[in-house]
């Protein structure tokens, strides 16, 4: 195992079962595969914000829970526990674990939407990484308006890693954290929102997967792949419109 990141907890803070998970998931790609296989936490019994320990026990996670899980696992393998907060105009924010590899930014994430999962470490800056989520954030009401990158170690002695209760202070920490503004094109956003509504109306419960830049995504959960054959706003859409122009 590589040297843990500065401030990472000692081995004796983990149960044997937890340490087996940590030992097995040595890379961001491995953590992403693990999270993809978990059921998304839709909070059927009420709102939760589970720690790493809570996620391992419950075997389910929503976006912030997944980000904290990734942070705890990967800090044992040398990655600082950094998370990115994406602020949305509809107040349904997204949180992902972020890291740098060979100087490039990547992410690990879990979401109820296919385009809000992880990204390969190919982005020169954290802002470029955040911008890769702009189009995929547009649905019936969502849209990115800002981003921030925070170090969870700045929570100090607060036990966001192992608490058996919801760690709401971590949520408040991100809500209060300074964010950099993002101002997407209003014209493009309106067009994507119209197209999103039309897609969902035509394809029942499927959510679009065809986006520009999807070659920089990490693999997404299998649950979304039924939509992969339908054009939306990416390579399939471009191919279809190109054919239509030649007819």
Structure description:
With 247 residues, the chain is an alpha+beta fold. The protein has one domain (11-246). 35% of the residues lie in helices and 16% in strands. The protein has helices spanning 16-24, 28-37, 52-58, 63-75, 126-131, 134-137, 168-175, 186-202, 235-246; strands spanning 39-40, 60-61, 82-88, 94-101, 104-108, 119-123, 144-151, 180-181.
Helical content band: 25-40%
Let me know the number of strands. Answer: 8
The pLDDT mean sits at: 96
Strand content: 15-25%
Number of separate domains = 1
N→C terminal distance: 58 Å
What structural class do you assign from the helix and strand content?
A: alpha+beta
Largest sheet: number of strands, sense, barrel closure: 6 strands, antiparallel
The run of helices and strands is HHEHEHEEEEHHEHEHH
Shape: globular
**Rounded Rg:** 18 Å
- Poorly predicted segments: none
Spatial strand arrangement across the major sheet: 6-5-4-3-7-8
What would the keywords be for this entry?
247 residues, two-stranded parallel ribbon, 35% helix
Write a concise synopsis of the structure shown.
The chain has nine helices and eight strands. By secondary structure, the protein is α+β, with helices and mostly antiparallel strands.
Any chance you could write out the topology, listing elements then pairs?
Layout: H1 16-24, H2 28-37, E1 39-40, H3 52-58, E2 60-61, H4 63-75, E3 82-88, E4 94-101, E5 104-108, E6 119-123, H5 126-131, H6 134-137, E7 144-151, H7 168-175, E8 180-181, H8 186-202, H9 235-246
Parallel strand pairs: 1-2
Antiparallel strand pairs: 3-4, 3-7, 4-5, 5-6, 7-8
Helix pairs in contact: 2-4, 3-4
């Amino acid at each position: 195992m590589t040297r843990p990141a500065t401030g990472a907890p000692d081995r004796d803070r983990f149960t044997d079962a937890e340490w087996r998970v940590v030992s097995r998931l040595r890379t961001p790609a491995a953590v992403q595969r693990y999270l993809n296989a978990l059921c998304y936490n839709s909070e059927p019994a009420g709102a939760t914000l589970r720690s790493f320990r809570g996620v391992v026990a419950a075997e389910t996670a929503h976006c912030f829970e997944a980000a904290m899980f990734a942070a705890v696992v990967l800090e044992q393998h040398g990655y600082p526990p950094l998370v990115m907060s994406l602020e949305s105009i509809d107040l349904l924010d997204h949180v992902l674990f972020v890291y740098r590899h060979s100087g490039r930014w990547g992410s690990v994430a879990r979401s109820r939407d296919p385009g809000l999962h992880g990204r390969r470490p190919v982005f020169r800056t954290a802002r470029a990484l955040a911008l890769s989520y702009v189009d995929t954030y547009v649905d019936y009401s969502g849209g990115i308006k800002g981003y921030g990158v925070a170090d969870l170690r700045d929570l100090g002695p607060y036990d966001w890693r192992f608490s058996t209760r919801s760690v709401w202070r971590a949520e408040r920490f991100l809500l209060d954290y300074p964010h950099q503004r993002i101002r997407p094109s209003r014209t493009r956003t309106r067009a994507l929102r119209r197209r999103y509504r039309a897609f969902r109306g035509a394809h029942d419960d499927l959510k679009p997967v065809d986006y520009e830049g999807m070659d920089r995504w990490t693999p997404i959960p299998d649950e979304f792949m039924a939509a992969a054959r339908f054009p939306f706003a990416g390579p399939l859409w471009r191919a279809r419109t190109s054919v239509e122009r030649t007819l």
